[in-house]
Design a protein that fits this description.
Elements lengths: L42 H6 L22 H11 L6 E8 L2 H9 L7 E7 L5 E10 L2 H10 L7 E4 H8 L3
Antiparallel strand pairs: 1-3, 1-4, 2-3
């Protein structure tokens, strides 16, 4: 006769003791005796390795000494930092080399009031921007942009914006 799976199994009679089944944790483990005659091969390389404390630690990024500015970068920074609040400049270009920026500025009239500035990059490098100014107000800068086609696509920048760019530690 088949017993459906939901029917409980018959209980063992009370007078018959249950046989003790060994559990995996109860099984005895074989004793392993270390061999004293053979040296461990891993011990020799560990002794030869330098301790982590002996290795020089890299300096934290914040602890980098500030590189001194070259004469040009210092002069450009000084020019920017002398800008007064409320003054504006027109940034005409940003280029990777001084030669490109100087050639770009040379295409304008000599009295155009352009400056080629060496601007710092966050990674420590530099790039060059060509600016016209300073101009006494935003309105004066906007008027110049509208009246002169050469300045029509310039970026209008405040003195504060320029100082923030050049006054980085």
């Amino acid at each position: 006769e088949l017993v459906p799976p939901t029917t409980p199994a018959p209980a063992q009679p009370a007078d018959e003791p249950k046989a003790a089944e060994p559990k995996p944790a109860d099984e005895p483990k074989p004793a392993v005796e270390p061999k004293a005659a053979e040296p461990k091969p891993a011990a020799a390389p560990k002794a030869a390795e330098p301790k982590p404390a002996d290795e020089p630690k890299p300096a934290p990024v914040a602890a980098k000494p500030e590189r001194p500015l070259d004469a040009r970068a210092q002069a450009d920074r000084d020019w920017v930092l002398q800008l007064k609040p409320g003054q504006w400049v027109l940034q005409l270009s940003a280029m990777n080399s001084a030669q490109e920026a100087t050639a770009f500025a040379a295409a304008f009239k000599p009295n155009a009031g352009l400056h080629v500035l060496k601007a710092p990059r966050d990674n420590g490098g530099a790039y060059y921007i060509v600016v016209r100014g300073p101009l006494p107000s935003r309105a004066a800068a906007e008027t110049l942009m509208k009246s002169n086609p050469a300045f029509a696509k310039a970026w209008l920048r405040s003195a504060k914006s320029m100082r923030n760019q050049f006054d980085k530690p």
